[in-house]
Structures are given as C-alpha cells and as structure tokens.
Amino acid sequence: MSTASSESSPAAYDRTAELHALDTTYAGVRGLIASGVTHVPRIFRVPDQHHEPRQDGTVPAGQEPAAIPIIDLGCGDHTAVVAAVRRAAAQWGFFKVTGHGVPEDTMAMAMDAVRAFHEADGGEGSDKARLYSREPARAVKYHCNFDLYQSPVANWRDTLYVRMAPTPPDAGDLPDNCRNALFDYAHQVKSLGNTLFELLSEALGLKPSHLTDIECNQGQVLLCHYYPPCPQPELAIGTSRHSDGGFLTILLQDEIGGLQIFSEDQWVDVAPTPGAFIVNIGDLLQVFKSC
C-alpha cells in the first residue's frame, strides 16, 4: 500500500482507496510491517484534536501512583473477597484477579497461539485470507479494525474474533495453530466468568446465582488483539478510547502493557501482573446495577 505522497498533495488523497488497498491484502497491520513500511499510513494517523491532553505523571512525594485493586480469589476468605469485589467494582469498574484457578500454562499457550496466528503471513490461500471478514453472523473471523470503513481513524491493531458461546464454532473454523489452545482457554475462562458473576451477584446483595439465572453468562467472545510494532507510535493509537458494551470483560494482558483506564478525571496505567486477569465491568452490567 502506497503511503508516499499523501502529505505533499492532500488533494490527491483517496481515503477509501487506501482503506480498500489495506483490506485486500488480507494481512492487516502486521502485513504492513512485514512489507517494510517506515511511516504510519494516513488512515492510521490520529489528528491533533483526537489526542488526549498530556497529563503530568508526577506523583507527589509520599503518595503511591493510582492502581486498580488486586483481588486474590483463592485467599479462603469468601466474605472478604465479596467485599473487595464490591469496592473495586463501585470505585473503579476494574480489578485484577489472582488465585482464579486458570492454569498458567493454559494462559501462556493461548497467548502463544494467538501470537503465532497473527505473525504468520497473510495473503491469498492463508488462514488469514480464509477468515478475513466483518460479517456479524460469522463466529470466527479475522480483520484489521471491525469498523475500518466507519471510524475516522483506524487503530494500529489486528483482531482474531472467536464467538465461543452460546453455540461453539466448528473446530475446523479455527486456525490450525490456535484451535486446541483457544478451546481450552475458553473453557477455563468461562468457568472463571461464572465465579465472577456469583461474586458480583453477592456484591449487589443478591443470591449468588442471580446474574447466571438471568443469563448474563450465556455469551462468550474471544477478541484476540495483536498490536504490531509501530514505526511512528506518536502518530497512531492501538485502541481508541471506549467502554466495553457487554456484561463482563476478562482480559489477559501480555508483558508489554499499554492499557490505561480513565478514573476520576485521569488516565491510569495498568501495569501487567504475571498470572493475573483484568476484570472490567461492562456497560450492560452497569445498567443493571443502576436499575
């Protein structure tokens, strides 16, 4: 995809053509890096008005940087865990969980499998080409930005999307190098999700099965994002500011980090914690809590 003359001759810039050129490679942002690009294409460049204001990250002497709570689900004190979940959900809408019962090798194998898929070549005849789609009905698909043609700025990110519940996909629909790892991971995380819904039910003063009884736990989607190295990171963004629309997000973060959450009028860095998941209370659960 050509990126050379967009700045020198803005009248000649055809955004739709550039989006289409990227889309038809079936290789996403990773394909750009593999092709040797040294500049961020214009479709990914964040205009100045879209940048968040810079914040002074200086922490006053004697004060710890803000950080989301870490809750050990396996501590053995159920009452304390419910209370901690209640506080974290109310104050932050986010918390980390350890002692969750998901084996670390399951987490590592899923991460490695997703990375292997994204770092494989794209193009005609590849798994990426076979799965490349934004069709809502497809249970397994790969794409560069689900809203590529609607968003004013494309995110520097590729995604493998797998809808695991309520109806799991055919095994053959998943990429060979991801199949077993993602099915195992989804099973383990679904169990963790059920535990979290029980804790959240109790935190709301309801019986443990309440959120499950009203089927908050029926769906499960794996969004396997990949953020390739960026030649000009100050010009692009991996994921735009947003809120999660479902009931609950359980996020497995790699060792690189980069996640931020907005709390009390400031962006807070969420540093990786080995072996932990990040839990995000989604919009639908926020609505339920407010009713």
TrEMBL record:
Kindly give the InterPro entries that the UniProt entry links to this protein: DIOX_N, IPNS-like_FE2OG_OXY, IPNS-like_sf, Oxoglu/Fe-dep_dioxygenase_dom
Alphabetized UniProt keyword annotations? Iron, Metal-binding, Oxidoreductase
PROSITE patterns reported in the protein's UniProt record: FE2OG_OXY
Q: Which residues form the Fe2OG dioxygenase domain?
A: 218-291
Required co-factor?
Answer: Fe cation
Q: Which residues form a coiled coil?
A: none
**Record Pfam families:** 2OG-FeII_Oxy, DIOX_N
Q: Which SUPFAM superfamilies match?
A: Clavaminate synthase-like
MF GO annotations: dioxygenase activity; metal ion binding
- Which family does this protein fall into? Belongs to the iron/ascorbate-dependent oxidoreductase family.
Q: Identify this protein by name.
A: Fe2OG dioxygenase domain-containing protein
Q: Which organism is it from?
A: Triticum aestivum (Wheat)
